[in-house]
Design a protein that fits this description.
The protein is an alpha/beta fold. Helices cover 34% and strands 24% of the residues. The protein is globular and about 50 Å long.
Length: 245
Amino acid sequence: MPADPFFAVAGLAKHFGGIHAVEDLSFTLARGEILGLIGPNGSGKTTTINIVTGALKPDAGSISVEGSDMAGQAAHLFARRGVARTFQVPRLFRRMTVMENLIVPALSDASERRPSAEERARGVLAFLKLEHLADDYARALSGGQQKLLELGRALMLKPSLLLLDEPFAGVHPKLLEQIIEHIRTLNRDGHTIVLVDHNLDAVQSIVSRVLVMARGRKIADGAVAEVLQNPEVVRAYTGSRAGAQ
């Protein structure tokens, strides 16, 4: 009998009045897999991320993390199960230093002590190449540096599943390459990752599988090259029948 998938969503739905933001969405992830979640604006990607991290309660469907049903549970309970996310617009404590921003999520775990949190934070800063900014205020960082710090805050939760919402948006090309390499490294180290972004070139450089949403529904799920030539995907992005670029 096959083992349960590491992460599974089945029949997920979320409606806002008459708007079906997510409808009958199902997919699974194996441990250590990296998935690109793509689609045109308004297709339901961020709503999906919000639901599967506890920020929104679904109207229907199930969410399973390592066999445990998590649908409708609060965000902090998802975090305790090893599910962490970043946001399109980083949600940092702008009047705190970079180091303080990293320590705060770690201390949400009652068993964590500040000395160990600081030690882990220094390791995260070294990984992200932000050591020189440890004592700077978050509000002084560039847009790309704030994205890196947001990623660092997620890592402080010791996640097994990372959901990254638009990590490349508004980032300088030099930092973009750095973020791409960090994501590759995290995946090689065993993190399961869902990557949402409109930069298809960057997404394709990292993932081998993509799930495409349009109008709240899944319209394709599979190997990148195959999916981007799917006529329904092409129409969703361009309204034409030519191959997606």
